[in-house]
Every structure is written in structure tokens, then in C-alpha cells.
Amino acid sequence: MVSAAVIAAATTVAGVAHAEPRPVAQISKVAKLGPLRTDIWVTSPAMRGKVKVSVLTPQNSSGPRSTVYLLDGADAGENVSDWISKGRAGKFFADKNVNVVLPTGGAGSFYTNWAHKDAKLGKPQWETFLTKELPPLIDARFDGTGRNAVIGLSMGGQSAFALAIRHPSLYSGIASLSGCPPVSGPANEAYVRTTVAKSGGDATNMWGPFGSTNWSAHDPSLHLNKLRGKNIFLAAGSGAVGPLDLTAPADPKDGPRQAVTAAGSALELGAWRCSLEFAATLRANNIPFTDGFRLIGTHNWVYWERDLPVAWPTISRGL
User: How many Å separate Cα 200 from the centre of its chain?
Assistant: First the structure.
């Protein structure tokens, strides 16, 4: 007679033998758009679908390269990163010996793992995609070294620091341009909630009720030791309108230039306040960073395009 234990063991072995393999992220489509740009579509189990990513590679370069991840702001382009269409990232990085990775479609998401399904934004799992699924695919296809940095603007600036404290071994450098890295306190919470709401989402579905452990888990000001030894850059303008605002390209769909400039001024003033708060926290805890604060400037691409070259010497040190 066969014992119950033997039957159970055989059943377990059989179950293992016939277990379905877990799905893994893979590149499902590649489009070469020029000598320096390749668009890839990644089938992502975490995101439950395909995610389009643009990759910039340098001219006249071969051999292993480090990788820079560039994150958009709250109005992230659905089909191409704003860093390409508005920030001229392709031109800036053309002679830099790095891969540049630009995900699309992250509007209002904070590039994080959402805790609950949102009626508008769904339940994106950007953190898993950006830190677990995508890096090995980039390194394998584009000859990456495994050394990375992350740069974000506005919403993406907070995301860059949140990803860095949660995955400190992945990034050597972090930069926030006109962002608000800390999320504790009424003003900073309001910034997050307003940013998500602009895209039609509810931040409670993202990290739960304010004050919950998930909010504190994404606040770099509460995990400062994870930032020690990193190459850090912070920039923001005061919100004061300057000559560049008067000549910046304007999209009629955004409304009258004066209204757009006024809104950009208010947004940048908030980023200025929050970034200065974070800078003071870093200084008080003896964590070095490079200061890119400007006395003039609104929430506008004409400034971020100029911030990128200023940030680069700091970010490139670890690459």
C-alpha cells in the first residue's frame, strides 16, 4: 500500500514539474528612428501590458556604457518623452558616452507602484518596471555596465529620489529639476495630491491615506542614509518671470501666454520652497549636493533645457 505521505510528495513533485513559468519582461518590438535613437516596446508583467521606451545612444562610441534614466513631469507624453520633444535631450546627449532611457506614458503616476486601482490611472507598477524589469533589458541590448543615474523634472524629480532611496544600489546619481522630493507635511502632501488630480487620479489609491507608512516609505527626507555617497543635484527657480518666459514657445491650446506664465510662476514657487526645504535637510545632515537654484525662472522647459547641462557634471561623476 502506498502511504499518504508518498502520494503527497509525488503530487508536490508533479505540481512543480508542471508549474507554468512565471512571465518575464521582454522587448517585443524595436524601431530604429535614427542613428542615435531607438524606440522599444517592452511587454511588462508588472504593468500588465506594453510600455514604450525611447533609448538614446551616443554617436561615434562603442563598448560598455552607463545609463541615465530621464523621467518626465506630470504631463508626460503618451507617445514620446517630453525630454525628447521639448527638452532637446537628443541634442545634449549626442556626444555623451551613456545610454539615455526615456519611458513614455507616466502622466500623473509619480513613477511608483500604486497600491489600489484608480478609476482613471489604473494600477501602474512603475517602480517594479523601472528598477526590476527594464534595467537588465537595457543593459543586455544596449551594452550597459549596470551603473545608472536618474534625473527627473517636476513630478519626476520626486520620483527620482523616491526610487533612489528604495533601490540605493541601482543609482549613483540623482537629480531633481523643479521637483518636490519630500512628501511629508501638509504643503508637500498637497503638491502630490494636486499633481495626481491634474491627471484625473486620486493619490489615496497611489500610497493610501496621508500619514500611512507608504507615504513615509517614499519620502527621501525620512531615509537620508540611503542618499549618502550619491551624486545629488537640486535645481529650481524662484518663480520670478524672466526674459526667457517672454520668448518661450507657446502652445495656443494651453491658453493665453500671460495665464500660462502666471501658472508656471506659481508652480515653480512651490517647487522652489519645497526644494529649499529638502536642501536644508540635506545640509543639516551633512549630505553633500550640488545647488542649481536660480533667482529667476518659472515652471517651463526653457529653464529645464538649461538645467540639464548644469546638472551633468555632478551626475556624470558616478557613471
Answer: 19
